[in-house]
Every structure is written in structure tokens, then in C-alpha cells.
Design goal:
The protein has one domain (8-246): TIM Barrel (Alpha-Beta Barrel). The termini are far apart. It is built from nine helices and eleven strands. The strands form three sheets. Strands 4-6-7-8-9-10 form a six-stranded parallel β-sheet. Strands 2-3-5 form a three-stranded parallel β-sheet. It is of the alpha/beta class.
Length: 247
């Protein structure tokens, strides 16, 4: 007998060992964890999923989150010390950043004030309201500085949803794509984002995944994400690639 309802599985059952390359668990420096206690609660929640390796990526955003390598490293040291004090173990806890492509981005890039992932990859983002006017020039400069650009959550830029050809165009220019795992649940950002996330996966355009978790509420949403086997089969190799690249 044919069934019209495909059985779904929990993403949480497949996250063990994942390296989370995009999150906001460092305390007190952006719109993520406000205090060390928030960071600790988030790390404990991730541990329940088997996720114990993190590259922390607080925002660097001109006139909003004026972070520098110094402020990020200070927050990172604070969290590492608290983990040791409480006897909580993580496999790795590295510091990097999520860089907004804004009018100050190229300045900090040239002044070596960026925070790459694994010394080679630079996580960048744009506004959700409109594309960065200097995006292509900035990406060219990223390449000149010998970094691989990773565009955070491409599925969330709704101004590209009706211009889908922009996605393969960006890929052809050497831009890597990082999908938010939260985007796979309509409860997170809406059904349109979920549809685009799945399409990008199905079309083989996603290179890496991250959670982009900012708080305990989002972590609870992540634990409830359900996927079709079709989506899961496309997602698992991307998760493996993320582990292989960043562990």
C-alpha cells in the first residue's frame, strides 16, 4: 500500500561528533550568551547531543558588535577557565568570528583584525535586509589575503530566493556555503527558509553545516528538528565533511 506520509527522523540522533563551526556561545560580546552561566548551559545542552567540539564565532559588525581579536580571545579565555574550574570537558573550543560584510570589513581584513576558522577559512555574512553593496569586492580581497570565504546561512537571504541563479554564481566564484541546521525546522526562521535550505542541499550547493545557536531556546528547537530520509541522506555527507575539515 502506498503511503503519502514519509517517516521522519530526529536530526539530534545524527549529531554525535559534529564540530559546530558557527555558534554564539562566548559570553557577553554579542547577541548570543549574555553571561558565563548561559555559555555553560548551552555547552551542557550540546553535550547531550554528543557535540563537544566548537569553533566559537561571535559577530564582528561595525557600529553594532565592535569585536576584535582581543575581545574575542578574552571571552574565550574566560569560558575555557570556567570549564576547567567546573571540570566540564569539551574536545575543542576554538575562537573565530562571523564577519559582517559592511563598510568596515575590508579595513579590518587588511589590518589583520579578522578571526579565521583554522587559519584558512573566513566566515562572513550579509544583512538579511539587502545584499552588501561591496560583497564581490570584499570576497576578492578575502581571496587575496589567502582565506577561503564561507558564507554563513545562505538560505536565510530571502532577497536571493527569487534570484536562485545567484547561488551557483557565488559558488562558481569560490564562495563556500555553510547551512544553519536550525534552518531545517520551520519553527526557527519560517517555512520559506526551510524550503530553501532543503533545495540548496538537494542541489549539492552546501559545503558545511553549523548550528548558529544563540541561546537555550534555539538549542531546544534544534533538538526537535525532524528530517525526511531524503534530506538526511543529503545532509549526512555535509556533516562528515564539516567534521573532516574542522576537527
Amino acid at each position: 500500500m502506498l503511503t503519502f506520509f514519509q517517516k521522519k527522523v530526529y536530526l539530534a540522533d545524527y549529531m554525535h561528533g559534529l564540530v559546530d563551526i558557527h555558534n554564539h556561545i562566548l559570553p557577553g560580546i554579542d547577541d548570543g550568551a549574555k553571561k558565563v552561566e548561559d555559555s555553560m548551559a548551552m555547552i551542557a545542552g550540546f553535550s547531550e547531543l554528543g557535540v563537544k567540539s566548537f569553533i566559537c564565532t561571535p559577530h564582528i559588525m561595525h557600529n553594532h558588535y565592535e569585536n576584535t581579536p582581543a575581545t574575542i580571545k578574552k571571552a574565550h579565555t574566560l569560558l575555557v577557565n570556567e570549564l576547567e574550574k567546573r571540570g566540564m570537558s569539551v574536545t575543542t573550543l576554538e575562537a573565530a568570528a562571523e564577519h559582517m560584510i559592511d563598510d568596515n570589513f575590508e579595513n579590518i581584513l587588511l589590518e589583520e583584525q579578522v578571526m579565521p576558522l583554522h587559519k584558512e577559512y573566513l566566515l562572513v555574512e550579509m544583512s538579511f535586509l539587502q545584499p552588501s553593496f561591496n560583497f564581490e569586492m570584499a570576497i576578492e580581497e578575502v581571496a587575496k589575503q589567502h582565506y577561503f570565504p564561507i558564507l554563513a546561512h545562505p538560505e536565510r537571504y530571502m532577497y536571493y530566493h527569487q534570484k536562485y541563479s545567484k547561488y551557483p554564481y557565488m559558488k562558481s566564484n569560490g564562495i563556500l556555503f555553510q547551512l544553519n541546521l536550525l534552518s531545517l525546522a520551520p519553527e526557527s526562521y519560517g517555512s520559506n527558509i526551510t524550503k530553501m535550505a532543503e533545495k540548496l542541499l538537494m542541489d549539492g550547493l552546501i559545503d558545511f553545516v553549523g548550528t548558529d545557536v544563540h541561546n537555550i531556546r534555539q538549542l531546544a528547537l534544534l533538538k526537535e528538528v525532524k528530517l525526511s530520509n531524503k534530506v538526511l541522506n543529503k545532509l549526512l555527507p555535509v556533516m562528515e565533511r564539516t567534521i573532516d575539515t574542522f576537527f
